[in-house]
Amino acid sequence: MKAVVVHGPRDLRIDERPRPEPGPGEVLVAMEWGGICGSDVAYWKHGASGTATLRHPLVLGHEVAGRIAAVGTGVDGLTDGQPVTVHPAEPVGDDPLPERIAGRTNLYPRVRYFGSAAFDPHTDGGFSEYRTVRAELIRPLPAGVSTEHGALAEPLAVALHAVHRAGDVRGKAVLVNGAGPIGALVVAAAKHRGAATVIASDISAAPLAVARAMGADRTVDLAAGEELPADIELSFDASGAPAALGPVLAATARGGTLVQVGNLPGTAVPAVLGSLVTREISWIGSYRFVDEIDEALRALRDGLDVSPVISHRFGIERADEALTVAAGSGSGKVMLRLGGC
To answer: What percent of the chain has pLDDT over 90?
Structure first.
């Protein structure tokens, strides 16, 4: 079978690997679609993502969907041909979390994640024609949800988790700074959860058009000199740009909340944070998701349309080109066609 494997910085190969067989408690998924994430780009560009560094070749990809091709022993309720996506996180160990974060499985000290080099040996992802998956990580797709859209349940879950971290957004005005794929999905998630008005801001016109298609009531083109709104009760930063923090904090109302969903650098950087104190703003981190992938699938079932987020589609043999496009400015979600669909 073909697999998209990063061997080092700028060293991506389509390797031939043996087709795996499912063991007890596993299923074999014939992958059909995968969405390229920023971490995939980071491994390809730098040989690292955050603090996780490549030590061995790694199959990329954690936003994936396909159809069950075989079922291992001891697996009930899953059948051959069933369309599915994957919850890509598996906590390591069985030590209970402290009571204050009970149930927040995304905060386990050690979590294996599809397509991650955080552990040695690494955890291969799903950018391959086939992959075995533990049955408890499988999420069947609702009727009417394609495998292409099912592959976007994972980033939609990230967005829904960020909105969940903000509390009840019903009837509120919301600012989303950074209208890339995650920002656009935060727009959709906020509207799905009942936000009254969502304003999206970015430094590029193309992602702002996507944000409007995903439900933004107003957009702000920062490159064109437009200014952020004032006194917004609830803000999300999906840009991950330290330079944006000062303006977004200044746009957030006194006593308001800023949810940080865009990954910030792991190294020291300058940032203007004075408003965090003087405006008594609650600055909340948001990391991956817990079980919001189930809500994401329900939202897709109920008609939430993620197709505007998709900007490009490539076959698996053009994965290097797909990553180049995903790494450029202005692209939306770049999808890989991993198998027959």
So the answer is: 94
Residue-wise pLDDT tens digits, 193-208 = 999 999 999 999 999 9
Kindly list the structural domains of the chain, giving each domain's residue range(s) and its CATH number in brackets, ordered by start.
2-152+306-337 (3.90.180.10), 156-285 (3.40.50.720)
Alpha-carbon gap, residue 332 to 311, rounded angstroms = 5
Contact yes or no for 215/198 (Cβ under 8 A)? yes
Distance between first and last Cα of the chain:
16
Q: What is the pLDDT of residues 69-105, one digit of tens each?
A: 999 999 999 999 999 999 999 999 888 999 999 999 9
Q: pLDDT band for position 341 (50/70/90)?
A: low
Asked whether the predicted pLDDT for residue 141 surpasses 60, the reply is yes
Question: How far is Cα 55 from Cα 190, in angstroms, rounded to an integer?
Answer: 39
Supply φ then ψ for residue 17, to 5 degrees.
-130, 155
> Helices (H), strands (E): how many in the chain?
9, 20
CA nearest to 159, candidates 32, 330, 304, 273: 304
Average pLDDT of 176-182? 97
Instruction: Say how far apart CA 261 and CA 258 lie, in whole Å.
Output: 9
Q: What is the mean pLDDT of the chain?
A: 96
| Strands of the chain, DSSP E | 2-8, 11-16, 26-35, 48-49, 52-53, 58-59, 63-71, 83-86, 89-91, 111-113, 130-134, 138-140, 173-177, 197-202, 218-221, 232-237, 252-260, 282-285, 310-315, 333-337
Q: How far apart are CA 278 and CA 234, in angstroms?
A: 17
Residue 102 has φ and ψ, to the nearest 5°, of -55, 135
pTM of the model: 0.96
Q: What CA–CA distance (Å, rounded) separates 182 from 158?
A: 8
d(CA 264, CA 274): 18
